[in-house]
Design a protein that fits this description.
The protein is 40% helix and 18% strand. It is of the alpha/beta class and 584 residues long. The strands form three sheets. Strands 11-12-13-15-14-16-17-18-19 form a nine-stranded mixed β-sheet, sandwiched between helices.
Length: 584
């Protein structure tokens, strides 16, 4: 069973160290320097896959979060600008050298990470190579592109204009500190005066001339440069839920680093994995620890405990789709730390084959809505039990809500469920998950609202709307709306009997056990159509279940972007958790 990378705590952040597991250990370690925002979320799994590949070839690696991002500590003072993130790169390089015993490093950076890497390299010794994927060549152009990209994301998510950021660099709910943005604006290729490394690999996007200019600049500075096409870049960074791993780019990066390492002497120093200390971060009212758990340490998660008196149950935060455990817009991190302020512990983690947790051998590559994910939840509950933090309340959004709900049916240690925007309560294994993820329709109410927006007409005139697919989805939404009024007849259809039996049986089981279930839906969320098919648009079918609470969050999108929606979720989760007595 493959192990997840080992968490390390340093410089206000948590890093993930992957030791060398090959027959020989190279005298080269790889430091991953990540991009920022939505691109980082999409890239998270890709970095882990490359790290696993390198480990099998005897090459250790380390990946980490910048202060104020991901699982790192929050930071209110960014007056030091981009140097704060430069410092994190230097600290990470030092930890990589200490843990691996290597005297040389290769830096692998993508997007904005290339800018940060180029700045930090000047303070590092023993840099043998640089892998630059989709490099940023102009800070100003990059920030303009981020603003355009952010608008496209907001439109796609259906975020109301009043809840969109009016200024600054904000994408997918992540805000870049202005001091960081100010330093990024100053960067251009003209500021690069020395070669960053003797050997470089530049992964170029075919439609970006700047990538070719970047490679040419490195050659002019005296570096030996190999250029390769970054095929599949757009499919990788568009959406974490549908990100397609670019296998050709993966092979190119791994082979180039392996060849570079093979040309150097083997590692002269034996690494000392036993020197790894618990990966602990301390905040104003919480203690967080990065963990490996499950068979062979196959899963990665973060346990967040209050510094004061513990209250109620421990919340198990189940991730959404392929989002990393830190959550969309760091929602998982913020929720965990806010819960700790109320005395409530929590565990957030990546299920197998999601972000930083490797896949289980023999399992399908598409793990969403697969019954095996409940095994990962059980492994997480085991950790909570070992730490004497029972009982457990599970919570998640969309596919995470589904997994939280279904896991409660299988594990009696789970004594509460808070499900946000569950798409279904039972997944038909015959349904094509990939097709649904890429082309999930909206509700009829959402389509009606969008048709009245001037923004929609503008996109239509610009040819940015797939009219045929939109018409098909509207037809499906209309069909579901009509089906609500014929619900008893619909349930009698052969293809719906299994669904109905499974859903009713699940709710009866939790009701008989007295497990409180809080269902929260954003206004016009697509999951409401499926909910109405089972319980009616007025939720009258829930009346028989005294343990179930149903709430509509007005003005909220699927990701709970508006602050009032997030507060409602937090208050509901806190109430369910604190209503249970903690076990000693």
């Amino acid at each position: 069973m493959p192990s997840a990378a080992r968490p390390l705590a340093f410089s206000e952040t948590i890093g993930l160290f992957m030791p060398a597991n090959g027959k020989t250990v190279a005298d080269v370690g790889v430091l991953f320097v990540s991009p920022w925002g939505l691109e980082e979320m999409c890239l998270r799994k890709f970095w882990r896959i490359i790290a696993d590949d390198l480990s099998a070839r005897g090459i250790a690696s380390l990946r980490f979060d910048y202060p104020g991002t991901g699982d790192a500590l929050d930071r209110s003072d960014f007056s030091g600008g981009l140097a704060i993130w430069d410092d994190a790169v230097v600290a990470a390089a030092n930890r990589l050298a200490a843990m691996s015993g290597c005297s040389r490093i290769v830096i692998a950076a993508q997007g904005l990470g290339t800018v940060i890497a180029l700045r930090a390299i000047r303070r590092l010794d023993g840099v043998a190579g640089l892998v630059a994927l989709a490099p940023v060549t102009s800070g100003r152009a990059y920030l303009r592109e981020m603003q355009i990209w952010a608008k496209m994301v907001e439109e796609g998510l259906g975020i109301a204009k009043e809840h969109r950021a009016a200024e600054g660099i904000v994408i997918a709910g992540l805000a870049m500190p202005e001091e960081i943005a100010a330093d990024i604006r100053k960067f251009s290729l003209a500021t690069l005066e020395e070669k960053p490394a003797p050997q470089c690999l530049v992964m170029k996007r075919p439609d970006r001339p700047g990538d070719t200019e970047f490679a040419a600049k490195l050659v002019a500075l005296g570096a030996a440069v190999i250029e390769a096409d970054y095929k599949g870049y757009d499919d990788l960074v568009s959406n974490p839920a549908t990100a397609v791993m670019p296998q050709a780019a993966r092979s190119a990066v791994v082979e180039w680093i392996t060849k570079l390492a093979a040309a150097l002497p083997p590692c002269p120093t034996e690494p000392r994995p036993e020197t790894i200390q618990p990966a602990v971060l301390h905040g104003p009212n919480f203690r967080e620890e990065g963990l490996n758990f499950g068979e062979g340490g196959r899963l990665y998660g973060v346990l967040c405990e209050p510094l004061g008196e513990r209250k109620g149950a421990t919340v198990l935060l189940v991730g959404t789709a392929y989002d990393r455990a830190a959550g969309w817009a760091r929602s998982g991190v913020r929720l965990a730390r806010d819960l700790a302020a109320r005395g409530i512990p929590s565990l957030r983690f990546d299920t197998a084959n999601v972000a930083d947790s490797p896949p289980v051998p023999g399992m399908p590559d598409q793990v969403l809505y697969h019954e095996a994910q409940s095994n990962d939840v059980s492994a997480a509950v085991d950790v909570i039990e070992e730490r004497h933090l029972l009982p457990v309340v599970t919570s998640g959004r969309c596919s995470g809500a589904y997994l939280a709900f279904r896991s409660a049916l299988q594990d009696a240690r789970i004594q509460g469920v808070v499900a946000v925007n569950p798409f279904v309560f039972y997944w038909d294994p015959k349904r094509d998950i990939d097709e649904w993820l890429r082309f999930v329709p909206r509700t009829l109410g959402d389509y009606k609202g969008r048709l009245l927006q001037a923004e929609t007409f503008q996109r239509l005139l610009q040819g940015r709307i797939d009219i045929a697919r939109a018409a098909t989805n509207i037809g499906r939404a209309l069909g579901r709306r009509l089906a609500r009024h014929a619900m008893p007849l619909i349930h009698m259809l052969p293809q719906n009997r299994v669904m109905r039996r499974e859903v009713v049986g699940a709710f009866h089981t939790l009701s008989n056990r007295g497990v409180p279930v809080a269902l929260l839906y954003s206004e016009n969320d697509v999951g409401l159509d499926h909910f109405a098919e089972q319980f009616g648009s007025s939720a009258r079918g829930l009346r028989r279940y005294k343990n179930v609470d149903f709430t509509i969050l007005e003005g909220a999108d699927h990701n709970l972007t508006p602050e009032p929606a997030r507060l409602s979720y937090f208050d509901t989760l806190s109430a369910v958790a604190t209503a249970l007595d903690p076990q000693p």
